[in-house]
Amino acid sequence: FGNAFIRGLQENVIATAKHFPGHGDTNVDSHLALPTIEYGIDRLEKIELYPFKKAIKNGLKAIMSAHINFPAFTENGLPTTLSKKCLTGLLRETLQFEGLIVTDCMQMKAIQHNYTTKEGTLMAINAGANLICISHSEELQVAAIKRLKEAFITKELSEDTINDRVQRLLKFKEELGTINLNSSYESVSSLVENDKTKAFALNVVRSAATLVKGTPFIKSSKPLLLAVSPMATSIADEKDGSHDIINKVKLELPDFDTARLNVKTTEIEIQEALKQARKHKQVIICTYNANIYTTQIDLVKLLLKEDIELHVIAMRNPYDLHYAKEIKNLVCFFEYTSNSVRALVDYLKGELALQGKLPITSE
Q1: Which terminus in the chain has less CB density within 10 A, N or C?
Q2: pLDDT at 241 exceeding the cut of 60
Q3: pLDDT tens digits for 316-334?
Q4: Is-contact 81 104, C-beta < 8 A?
């Protein structure tokens, strides 16, 4: 499936495989800290590297590095993004990858807290990266550029290294050809903001909604909806509040009672939610990365002990059932965006059939 998707993308754009050399088997979010994967080379060759090898053979044009320490592949406890042994030695020399090496966002705390964004930028380029991703802060973008200029003057960054990294970029820019790098967003906005594109994007989200366990929600009384606010839990999260579940439900489903929860649900909020839940026969709780912010799971487990019909809806990571196997009714929407909130409201209205398939093993 991955290779088919790569081929489709690369008819028009560059596909980027991430996160090299693997990111699935961690218990720490690299937005928040630096994870380590301790497996030996034999296991990593058979599992983590396998899809990357296939993608490279398939003509993949870009790979994004992981902010993860792989002692089998990296040196001195460095994350992949900053490791010359991994990016140049393993990816370039051993795996013979000739495409672009792109970093994950250098503002993620795995980099920012351990190395700083500007120093990490220099380290990543010296390690082998062609493109540095600094996603959020203009101040840090400028600081990183100034650091590179300084490093060139002090010879921490050689002209040969710059030429090597830039040569690949120019090659792919020339290959893409049709892209005008000086065009404004306004000149292309009609391509991404037209009704056909918006309808397609919404349909993708609607089609992805998955019944993991139990039965779909069917309104039979005045329900209570408990929902986590879409606050940013790391700098990589969206901060736009326009996709707020509570506001949307109040507007379109006035016969639902609602209560807002924080991502890091407090004991006071838990007790208040339980108090409100006992007044209802049906309760829906919309969680958000509850595998990381586990007080949401604590609330779910307490709600399951009440004499209510409980429906759990995971609005982002789909791992809730792993941490609360006693959940009877679980639906996954996989993202917390305006489209997913639209799809959620349609589901609560009984206007959305759940067609998706869970991409992980839940139990």
Answers
A1: N
A2: no
A3: 999 888 899 999 999 999 9
A4: yes
If you write DSSP's letter for every residue of 82-144 in order, what string do you get?
A: G-HIIIIIIIIIIS---SEEEEEETTSHHHHTTT-HHHHHHHHHHHT-SEEE--S-HHHHHHH
pTM for this entry: 0.70
Exposed/middle/buried for 83, CB within 10 Å: 0-12, 13-18, 19+? buried
Name the token pair of 41. 């080379």
Residue 237: CB atoms within 10 A of its CB come to 15
pLDDT band for position 178 (cuts 50, 70, 90): low
Residues 6+ away with beta carbon under 8 Å from 233: 263, 288, 289, 292, 293
Please list the alpha-helical segments (H only) found in the chain: 2-9, 41-46, 50-57, 84, 109-112, 117-127, 138-153, 159-176, 185-193, 195-208, 245-252, 267-277, 295-304, 320-323, 338-348
Provide the percentage of residues in the chain whose pLDDT is more than 90: 68
At CA 215, angle to CA 346 and CA 205, rounded to 5?
35
Q: Order of strands, edge to edge, in the sheet holding 62-65?
A: 16-20, 62-65, 100-105, 131-133
Structure tokens at 291: 């595998």
pLDDT tens digits along 98-112:
999 999 999 988 888
Q: Which of 267, 262, 263, 270 is nearest to 289 (CA)?
A: 263
Query: Sign of the CA dihedral 108, 111, 113, 118?
Result: negative
CA distances (Å), origin 48, targets 42, 43, 294: 10, 8, 28
CA pair distance 250, 213, nearest whole angstrom:
27
Determine the average pLDDT of the residues in 200-215: 96
Tokens of 231: 């606050």
Say if residue 5's pLDDT is above 80.
Answer: yes
Mean pLDDT, the chain, rounded, equals 89
- In angstroms, the CA 54 to CA 162 distance is 29
Residue 13 has pLDDT above 60, yes or no: yes
Residue that has been written with the tokens 């903001």 in this structure: 193
pLDDT at 188 over 90: no
Strands 282-287 and 16-20: unpaired
